[in-house]
Design a protein that fits this description.
Layout lengths: L2 H7 L7 H20 L5 H26 L1 H9 L9 H12 L5 H27 L14 H5 L4 H8 L2 H28 L16 H14 L4 H18 L2 H5 L11 H18 L2 H30 L9
Helix pairs in contact: 2-3, 2-5, 2-13, 2-14, 3-4, 3-5, 5-6, 6-8, 8-9, 8-10, 9-10, 10-11, 10-13, 11-13, 13-14
């Protein structure tokens, strides 16, 4: 087997976490342009870059599926890798949000494909969990939020594209499983061995469900009410908790899982931008600006570190 063939064989589905991070970054800048009116439109450029990345990753993974179908099925059966399978469908949903106002037709197609695919993946994952013969507590990590709690994302664009009851269905599904998984994952973190180093960045995923839940709730109801504030402040607390451990996370070895930092920070940034616009309070405006700056630096660092890892052939290798 040639080196290129080996790298294709080991190309993981978790690469689509890059799309989640880049899409979240794009949407955050789009929202910021409406709040701050900076006089330039960086979000359009970011959307183009993210779309090209998505197409490139999709074609690469399709080539892997064609040449090494057994490896792809192995990811669907793997107790840890399975949680990253829906990063593809979530990528579609996030791109649909990015195209929502510039290309509504494309946005609808992406949303419909992402919604149908994510529902199918949710059913598959839940069935796997229920009828498992292989899962152990050591397999559990915050990435398990992605398959089922990811349904909370559907209403963000869904309220513009389809019967609103569809959006309420997916929001309810994600909201139901969020506290269940939170309790189980905290039990694993407190009473069992620490997460392996490569999965430590997934702790940032704790930020995403309440932050995205806030965004979806705002889109569904059109207001920032008491429940919206509960969701927002839970997300903000997890942000404070994890950012306060910056020195610990900065010492971790680089893995693709570092991209788990990006989407949750993007989600709380977008939520804060909504709070700034809806409340008119300077506190949220300044907080949103700070989060957007931090997110921008984070994404630039991740892009540079990922490019370096690719050139050093540290990714797409066995066991990475």
């Amino acid at each position: 087997m040639t080196e290129d063939s080996a790298r294709l064989k080991n190309f993981p589905i978790s690469w689509f976490a890059v799309i989640m991070g880049m899409s979240g970054f794009t949407i955050a800048w789009n929202r910021a342009e409406h709040v701050f009116d900076p006089g330039f439109c960086i979000s359009s450029v970011l959307l183009g870059i993210t779309t090209i990345l998505f197409v490139a990753l999709t074609l690469t993974y399709a080539a892997k599926a064609f040449k090494y179908p057994g490896e792809v099925m192995g990811e669907f059966r793997h107790p840890v890798k399975l949680a990253f399978v829906p990063t593809f469908s979530i990528g579609l949903l996030l791109l649909s949000i990015g195209f929502l106002h510039t290309a509504p037709g494309i946005s609808f197609l992406l949303w419909a494909a992402g919604t149908i695919l994510h529902l199918g993946i949710t059913l598959y994952v839940l069935s796997s969990w229920i009828h498992h013969t292989k899962y152990e507590i050591a397999h559990l990590n915050p990435a398990w939020f992605i398959p089922v709690v990811g349904n909370i994302l559907v209403p963000v664009a869904g309220v513009h594209h389809a019967f609103i009851e569809i959006s309420w269905f997916f929001f309810s599904l994600g909201l139901f499983f969020w506290p269940i998984l939170t309790a189980i994952i905290f039990y694993r973190l407190i009473f069992h061995a620490s997460l392996p180093e490569r999965f430590m960045p997934t702790l940032f995923i704790f930020i995403a469900p309440p932050a995205v839940g806030f965004i979806s709730w705002h889109n569904l109801t059109g207001e920032v009410d008491a429940f919206a504030r509960v969701l927002y402040f839970v997300g903000l607390f997890f942000t404070l908790l994890l950012v306060s451990q910056f020195n610990y996370f900065a010492r971790l070895k680089f893995f693709l899982s570092w991209w788990a930092y990006s989407f949750p920070i993007a989600a709380i940034t977008i939520a804060t931008l909504i709070m700034a616009k809806e409340t008119g309070l300077a506190f949220y405006t300044w907080l949103a600006a700070g989060l957007l700056g931090a997110l921008s630096l984070l994404v630039l660092m991740l892009l540079a570190r990922t490019a370096l890892a690719v050139t050093r052939r540290e990714v797409c290798v066995e066991g990475h």
